[in-house]
Amino acid sequence: MKLNFDALFDAGVHLFYPRRCVGCGEIHETLSANRFLCPSCLVQWMEALSVPCPVCGKVGMECRCGASVPSSSPADGYYHLVPYRTPVLRGMLFRMKKRPDRDTAAFLANQMALLGDAAIKEHGVLRDRWIITYPPRSPEHENEQGTDQSETLSRRISHLLGIPCMPFFIHAEKTAAQKELTAAGRRENAQSSYSWNPKTAAPVGKAVFLVDDVITTGATLHSCTALLKGTGAECVVCVTAAKTLLQPDKGQQRI
């Protein structure tokens, strides 16, 4: 039997440190190795899972429309858990960006692995043909914060699904932060930010899960998907924890 060293490490840590809810960050006696959210945050999470997409009407984990990405995106599918506006989710992502947070990573990876299983079934591609990858953070941000949340999620999902994780991309140094740019600026910035990692073999004929924490305009995932397709990937599916929902009948206004 393959040992889950992340789970063993987490269990050891919590022998000495009390568990905190991954949503609000507070200590709760009800939390355990399989229960990450306090009762209040669990209610918020379940409500967020039932929020319908304003375009297709389906709830987050069932939505595949890619409403918040450019219509010309080369990706073969989009999967997400909840809307980015969800307070409990935003708290998780904020902490993951600022420091390594193993409990939050474990919770989100467990949820996102369910999306991965759904994609494998829906796309009809055998599990042994899939690879997981991620758009890396800029060297400056990773050195400053000491963590890359997308890589952390990818490697945990890789273990859960039994699919290899490969670092296909290199992030250029000294690029602008996406959150500070307009939609057009994000697309231009993403195209110049990512390049192929020459140390990895091209995914010719493979299916790829492209994992990130949030999709807003889709610029980063669009750029990375184009690189994957250009190097021979047969299928690229984007999997994120959250998606910024757009209202198409209001000039693509974020909601």
> Could you tell me the radius of gyration in angstroms?
18 Å
Helix count, per DSSP?
Answer: 8
Q: Could you list the spans in which at least 5 consecutive residues all have pLDDT below 50?
A: 249-255
The fraction of residues in strands falls at: 15-25%
Straight-line distance between termini: 46 Å
Average the pLDDT over all residues and give the rounded result: 84
Structure description:
The protein contains 8 helices and 8 strands. With 255 residues, the protein is an alpha/beta fold. The strands form 3 sheets. A 4-stranded parallel β-sheet has the order 1-6-5-2, sandwiched between helices. It has a two-stranded antiparallel ribbon with strand order 3-4. A hairpin with a 5-residue loop joins strand 7 and strand 8. The radius of gyration is 18 Å and the shape is globular.
